[in-house]
Amino acid sequence: SASHGAGRLRSRSAAKQSITNKMVKQELLKHEVDLLGGGFDEAPMAYKNIQRVMHYQDDLVDIVGTFVPKIVRMCGDDSPSED
Q1: Which residue intervals of the chain are DSSP H helices?
Q2: How far apart are CA 40 and CA 43, in angstroms?
Q3: Per the domain annotation, does 81 fall within a domain?
Q4: pLDDT (tens digit, 9 = 90+) per residue, 24-33?
Q5: Of 6, 68, 66, 2, which Cα lies nearest the Cα of 33?
Q6: CA atoms of 72 and 83, how far apart (whole Å)
Q7: Is residue 16 part of a domain?
Q8: In angstroms, rounded to a whole number, what is the distance separating the alpha carbons of residues 28 and 72?
Q9: What per-residue confidence (pLDDT) applies to 68?
Q10: Which residues pair with 17 in a beta bridge?
Q11: Count of domains in the chain?
């Protein structure tokens, strides 16, 4: 079976402890993404590199399209974490 996403590089609690607001702002600015809300546990650097993940499963899937977010709205850090 193939993965449905990149997968976590850091647990939610580890991401909240290690990722800073400055890091998130720099990453989102680099990719021209507007953040309307979200916690550090969902920051881009909390996840594995999707291109690398897809490369490792290229014998399992045919990529027919990609999604590039431009606006993100998720729960903030005040929401209970799942781990």
Answers
A1: 12-18, 21-30, 50-56
A2: 5
A3: no
A4: 999 999 999 9
A5: 68
A6: 22
A7: yes
A8: 10
A9: 87
A10: none
A11: 1
